[in-house]
Amino acid sequence: MTKKTIVPMPVIRRLPRYHRYLEELLKNDVKRISSRELSEKMGVTASQIRQDLNNYGGFGQQGYGYNVEELYNTLTKILGLDKTYSTIIIGAGNLGQAIANYTNFERTGFNLKGIFDINPKLFGLKIRDIEIMDVDNLEDFLASNKIDIAILCIPKDNSQIMADRLIKSGIKAIWNFSPIDLKVPDDVILENVHLSDSLLTLSYRINEENLLKTKVEEK
Ligand code: NAI
């Protein structure tokens, strides 16, 4: 189980995209946008946008549309981006290092405080001034540092044990990249990322027409 949301997940999954579009509009100095324009830009119906936002009180006025800055600020709050978060990365391999090196997360308020690995060859190396530490020190580190999010970038065979350790030490949110369905208590928020799902969807779409043509021909 992972912590249940109050608003349905499909709505929540659309919010970052609204936020991204509004940020772009704001950068381009757009002050207001009609719900029709916004929906056309985003490829979502105006009523979908309205329904989604209604979960948080509703915005926009009939005949005026949306005030871009106001809606952007509200979505920033809704997404919790008006706060900062402390993060750690477990696993300083290819993926862990790539995430550690991606400075944009920091700009959005996700501050990397520690990187842990099991490989002694990596101990003491630094990524952006943050030292890679021995994972044996994880519990001590968590006891003296308030960490909001653990980012899991280790091989899947070790992931459940690591998740259990993190949770035992008080971690309440895990951003999991390991290709495994972790079991977590229902007060822990688990967010899985599987880049390969997206890649396989892409390859499906490359092949869909042929696939369905063959099916019709077979009939
Ligand atoms: P990698 O082999 O380069 O790095 C894994 C690192 O984890 C190594 O440095 C290793 O020493 C460390 N490690 C292993 N057990 C550990 C433990 N118990 N505690 C701390 N550190 C430990 O592998 P890579 O390419 O970085 O991938 C890492 C994980 O992410 C794999 O599970 C892989 O399948 C997954 N992955 C997921 C993607 C996604 O989209 N979800 C994309 C790419 C990789």
UniProtKB/TrEMBL annotation:
Give any Pfam family that matches.
Answer: CoA_binding
Give the CoA-binding domain ranges: 80-181
Q: Which domain of life is it from?
A: Bacteria
Indicate the residues that the entry says bind DNA. Answer: 17-56
Q: Which residues bind NAD(+)?
A: G91, A92, G93, N94, L95, G96
Gene Ontology MF terms: DNA binding; DNA-binding transcription factor activity
Keyword Transmembrane present in the record's keywords: the answer is: no
Q: Is Transcription regulation given among the entry's keywords?
A: yes
Q: Name a biological process GO annotation.
A: response to redox state
Give a GO cellular-component term.
Answer: cytoplasm
Keywords in alphabetical order, please.
Cytoplasm, DNA-binding, NAD, Repressor, Transcription, Transcription regulation
Give the location in the cell.
Answer: Cytoplasm
Q: How does it assemble?
A: Homodimer.
Task: Give the protein's biological function.
Answer: Modulates transcription in response to changes in cellular NADH/NAD(+) redox state.
Q: Which family does it belong to?
A: Belongs to the transcriptional regulatory Rex family.
HAMAP family named among the record's database cross-references = Rex
UniProt protein name: Redox-sensing transcriptional repressor Rex
Q: Which organism is it from?
A: Thermoanaerobacterium thermosaccharolyticum (strain ATCC 7956 / DSM 571 / NCIMB 9385 / NCA 3814 / NCTC 13789 / WDCM 00135 / 2032)
Recorded name of the encoding gene: rex
